[in-house]
């Protein structure tokens, strides 16, 4: 990936999201040629010259200080995920690393044993590319479509991938009741990972594949949105047990770079809790009905 281009487009996209009113700047009426803030207004808010900010927005972060970046964070009203992404892009824009294939992640036997011991909780290990590297029995049952078809796995026996499933498998539009939210979240996670590891050739290939095959992915990728995926609630419509409302927790694995363990739980006594118990029993001898790997029609934003 072109690190300087990524920094340039990210700054432009964030500047367009902040109005003068939101920034506390006076407005004098008249037609504004750009959405959001002008470069001159960003330079005023950050306390640097217009020429200096223009250089940054052209992707040249050589010698930029942490204090200037923090000023940009405040001026552009970035959240924590956007702040981390800005720092990643600024750091990477000053050094060009050749694209390389990172060694395949290996899930330690002890980690798989931990997953298998979580018999009442769907859980899996995922990397920054949204590849599912390991799961327990209930996790496989929850995401059974991930393991059913080459469109999700990609070529050469690669692990199942959530982004491929969302954008290239028609079943995802039923599995995610709010498909647009799932799509935006997946792209934002990949965008953040691209800022951290722009030299990851497999990530670049994945993004290229999805951009080529899905207009919706391409449009979301161009928005430069990023986010963190730590905790929250997700809604699913499972083809066996129906609607599920599950709370998720993401735990980064300090001993395994770029890997995270994600688990789902349901409120005790809820219909989703009962559905998980039924899914657990189904998982011991599942009967998988055949399903086609069709590309889903792009939904409107």
Query: Uncertain regions: pLDDT < 50 for 5+ in a row?
Result: none
The helix-and-strand class reads alpha+beta
The best one-word shape is elongated
Total DSSP E strands: 5
Task: Give a brief outline of the structure.
By secondary structure, the protein is of the alpha+beta class. The chain has helices at 3-15, 20-23, 39-46, 50-57, 66-75, 80-93, 109-117, 137-142, 150-153, 162-168, 172-175, 179-196, 201-213, 215-222, 271-283; strands at 123-127, 132-135, 231-238, 242-252, 259-265.
Give short descriptive properties of this protein.
single chain; 301 residues; alpha+beta; 5-stranded antiparallel sheet
What features would you describe in this structure?
The chain is of the alpha+beta class and 301 residues long. Helix content is 46%, strand content 12%. It is built from 15 helices and five strands. A five-stranded antiparallel beta sheet has the order 2-1-5-4-3. A hairpin with a 3-residue loop joins strand 3 and strand 4.
Write the layout of secondary structure elements.
Elements: H1 3-15, H2 20-23, H3 39-46, H4 50-57, H5 66-75, H6 80-93, H7 109-117, E1 123-127, E2 132-135, H8 137-142, H9 150-153, H10 162-168, H11 172-175, H12 179-196, H13 201-213, H14 215-222, E3 231-238, E4 242-252, E5 259-265, H15 271-283
Helix pairs in contact: 1-6, 3-4, 5-6, 10-12, 12-14, 13-14
């Amino acid at each position: 990936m072109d690190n300087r281009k990524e920094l340039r487009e990210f700054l432009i996209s964030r500047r367009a999201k902040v109005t003068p009113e939101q920034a506390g700047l006076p407005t004098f009426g008249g037609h504004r040629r750009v959405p959001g803030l002008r470069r001159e207004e960003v330079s005023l808010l950050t306390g640097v010259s217009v020429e200096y900010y223009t250089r940054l927005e052209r992707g040249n972060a050589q010698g930029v200080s942490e204090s200037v970046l923090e000023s940009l964070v405040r001026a552009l009203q970035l959240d924590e995920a956007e702040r981390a992404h800005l720092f990643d892009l600024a750091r990477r824009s000053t050094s060009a690393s050749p694209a390389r294939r990172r060694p395949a992640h290996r899930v330690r036997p002890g980690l798989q044993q931990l997953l298998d011991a979580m018999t009442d909780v769907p859980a899996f290990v995922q990397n920054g590319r949204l590849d599912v590297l390991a799961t327990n029995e209930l996790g496989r049952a929850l995401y059974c479509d991930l393991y059913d078809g080459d469109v999700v796995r990609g070529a050469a026996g690669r692990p199942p991938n959530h982004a491929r499933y969302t954008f290239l498998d028609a079943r995802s539009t039923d599995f995610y009741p709010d498909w647009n939210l799932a799509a935006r979240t997946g792209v934002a996670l990949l965008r953040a990972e691209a800022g951290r590891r722009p030299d990851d050739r497999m990530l670049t290939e994945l993004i290229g594949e999805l951009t080529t095959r899905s207009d919706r992915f391409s449009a979301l990728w161009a928005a430069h949105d990023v986010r963190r995926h730590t905790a929250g609630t997700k809604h699913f419509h499972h083809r066996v047990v129906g609607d599920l409302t599950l709370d998720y927790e993401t735990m980064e694995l300090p001993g395994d770079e770029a890997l995270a363990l994600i688990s789902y739980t349901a409120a005790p006594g809820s219909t989703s809790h009962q559905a998980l118990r039924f899914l657990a029993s189904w998982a011991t001898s599942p009967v998988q009905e055949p399903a086609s790997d069709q590309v889903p029609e792009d939904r409107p934003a």
